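Data card: per-record layout.
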Amino acid sequence: MSENLEIKASKSGPYLIAGNFTFTDAEGNTKTVEKMVALCRCGQSANKPFCDGTHKKIGFEATEGALALNVIA
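The structure for this 73-residue chain is written out next.
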């Protein structure tokens, strides 16, 4: 995992995760990411968990104003 990983919620769009990291899916498949990945936040992407731009087509509007972080130890 990257020492400089950044996760940013775009306005009414995906979570943008930037940095160098390894992404592992539920089946254990891994992919090394060296720049950025966009994760779906609207729940309607045909390419979940990745964003495919559907949030724009459906008019998704995020309602959260602040993050409540739960740290898992």
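Known properties of this structure: The chain has a mean pLDDT of 86. Strands lie at 6-9, 15-18, 21-24, 30-33, 36-39.

See the next section for split statistics.
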